[in-house]
């Protein structure tokens, strides 16, 4: 049975005629060969006859379609069944075209001609996320934290198509970090930010992080809270006039976080009151911190810098990371098992025990919700109420009347 020749288009015949004319043909005769070729008989001006056989293009690969736009430009795209169309942007017949075609058919990320992450891959999506306003509004500390998370994600799933990431993938990533619940929560926060932006930008149709719960928190107080004994031990080891004492007193009597304490300086203080925009709020919330006499005494003794109260060994400002490391060393030298965040906790506890309300704690410590200050006010209320109610356990001061030891009337019905 004879093989059916491949479909020949008008454009194929036109190309064959142009090739014949370039060979010097004055007249041509066109016929279709049995092997899927166009055969042209050339009648040159010299009277000699020659023939040119132009090979037909190979049969078109599966799912590849060609379309001519209204501007007369031919475009190629891949469509499997009734699925979406995937445009092939490379030039037809080039290795880049073949690579894009294979990626479109298999569903793999499209290769990037510039050498960056493949279009459609998770690494490509993260790179686009970093270029958005949703990323730039995050604090510098949050961006550093999430950059570290994304770096590990890219190492393990760089070329994975982000469209194929589902809730099971996110849960698996959370479970791999289950031994450190804080890292698991940070991982979820980073992926939520990425896919919420992706959903708004219409890169994905569904947010795979929706409905994925945070791991349960470990029971305990978190950072070791300082006690009055810890403060006394530290102050004995680091007296007024040392930079280590300045670190403690700024943290203790201002209640600022490390990221704000390292920026806190004389330019923030007016009429005895310090005001500084907090880093964690994206510099939108102002913490109002009165400079207490005990803190003023420490700052006057120094050493302090020109723009920051907290300085390092050479008088230079510190980053919050370097302060955390240096303060931990100072605590270890004083025999105190604490950290900078533990100082913030005792500062909040002291203020709450002295009667500070939730609103007052929010103003002092830069909190934006009632969740954190209520922890300290409830603990203070519990302490105060427990002390006030302790005497009730003994029932020393009785207010009830004891029953009489003899009968007060004869038995029988009451007299009317």
- Uncertain segments of ≥5 residues (pLDDT<50)? 1-6, 46-53
**Main β sheet profile:** 3 strands, antiparallel
The average pLDDT value, as a whole number, equals: 79
Helix and strand string, N-terminal first?
HEEEEEEHHHHHHHHHEEEHHHHH
**CATH topology annotation of the largest domain:** hpI Integrase, Chain A
Helical coverage, percent range = 40-55%
Total number of helical segments?
15
Which CATH architecture of the largest domain?
Orthogonal Bundle
What number of structural domains do the residues give? 4
Q: Main sheet: which strands, in order across?
A: 1-2-3
**Estimated radius of gyration:** 39 Å
**Strands, total number:** 9
What structural class do helix, strand and pairing data support? mainly alpha
CATH level 4 superfamily of the largest domain: Intergrase catalytic core
Beta-strand residue percentage: 5-15%
Q: What general outline do the C-alpha atoms trace?
A: elongated
The CA-CA distance between the termini, in Å, is 130 Å
CATH class of the largest domain: Mainly Alpha
Task: Provide keyphrases for this structure.
416 residues; 42% helix; 3-stranded antiparallel β-sheet; elongated; 15 helices; single chain; 4 domains; disordered N terminus; mainly alpha
């Amino acid at each position: 049975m004879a093989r059916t020749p491949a479909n020949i288009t008008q454009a194929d015949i036109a190309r064959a005629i142009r090739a014949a004319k370039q060979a010097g043909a004055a007249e041509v005769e066109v016929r279709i060969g049995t092997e899927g070729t166009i055969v042209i008989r050339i009648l040159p001006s010299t009277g000699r006859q020659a023939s040119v056989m132009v090979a037909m293009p190979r049969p078109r690969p599966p799912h590849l379609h060609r379309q001519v736009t209204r501007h007369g430009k031919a475009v190629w795209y891949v469509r499997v069944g009734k699925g979406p169309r995937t445009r092939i942007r490379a030039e037809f017949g080039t290795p880049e075209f073949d690579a894009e075609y294979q990626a479109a058919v298999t569903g793999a990320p499209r290769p990037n001609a510039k050498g960056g992450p493949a279009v459609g891959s998770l690494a490509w999506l993260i790179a686009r996320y970093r270029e958005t306003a949703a990323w730039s509004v995050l604090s510098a500390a949050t961006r550093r934290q999430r950059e570290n998370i994304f770096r590990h994600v890219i190492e393990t799933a760089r070329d994975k198509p982000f469209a194929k990431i589902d809730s099971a993938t996110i849960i698996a990533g959370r479970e791999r970090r289950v031994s450190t619940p804080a890292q698991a929560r940070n991982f979820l926060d980073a992926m939520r930010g990425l896919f919420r932006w992706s959903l708004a930008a219409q890169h994905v149709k569904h947010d795979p992080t929706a409905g994925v719960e945070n791991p349960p928190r470990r029971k305990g107080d978190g950072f070791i809270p300082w006690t009055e004994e810890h403060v006394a031990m530290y102050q004995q080891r680091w007296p007024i006039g040392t930079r280590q004492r300045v670190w403690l007193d700024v943290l203790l009597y201002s209640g600022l976080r490390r990221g704000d304490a390292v920026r806190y300086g004389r330019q923030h203080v007016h009429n005895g009151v310090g005001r500084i925009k907090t880093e964690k709020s994206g510099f939108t919330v102002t913490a109002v911190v009165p400079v207490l006499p005990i803190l003023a005494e420490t700052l006057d003794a120094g050493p302090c810098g020109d723009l920051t109260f907290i300085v390092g060994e050479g008088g230079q400002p510190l980053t919050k990371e370097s302060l955390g490391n240096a303060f931990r060393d100072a605590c270890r030298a004083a025999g105190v098992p604490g950290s900078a965040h533990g100082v913030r906790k005792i500062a909040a506890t002291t203020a709450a025990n002295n009667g500070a309300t939730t609103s007052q704690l929010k103003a002092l410590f830069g909190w934006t919700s009632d969740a954190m200050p209520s922890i300290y006010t409830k603990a203070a209320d519990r302490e105060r109420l427990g002390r006030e109610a302790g005497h009730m356990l003994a029932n020393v001061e009785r207010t009830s009347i004891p029953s009489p030891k003899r009968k007060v009337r004869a038995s029988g019905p009451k007299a009317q």
